[in-house]
Design goal:
Helix content is about 55%, strand content about 0%. The chain is mostly helical.
């Protein structure tokens, strides 16, 4: 499941990268910074990324809301990088599953 989630995050980042013409997002890896210090996305593009990713995750049977108050106010943002977001989704999926 972890590899499937990573693949969807990569795909969502590539989609946003194409829209923004951001070369750094066209070949993402586990260390790719998403949002926050050194992140590639601003708040508006983060919303687009989240909406895209939530829809993709539902195809795996993972129904999760990533833009809730809990996530957005977390002390350690799950949007720091791909590895952190993947782990966050796995943990939330277990809580909901």
């Amino acid at each position: 499941m972890q590899k499937q989630i990573e693949k969807l995050i990569f795909e969502a980042l590539k989609n946003v990268g194409d829209e923004l013409e951001n070369e750094n997002l066209k070949n993402p890896n586990l260390e790719t910074k998403i949002y926050g210090t050194g992140g590639e996305l601003d708040s508006l593009s983060l919303v687009s990324f989240i909406a895209d990713l939530e829809q993709m995750l539902s195809s795996l049977g993972i129904d999760i809301v990533l833009a809730d108050e809990r996530t957005m106010s977390a002390r350690n943002s799950p949007f720091k990088d791909v590895a952190t977001l993947t782990q966050y989704i796995l943990n939330r999926g277990q809580e909901n599953g």
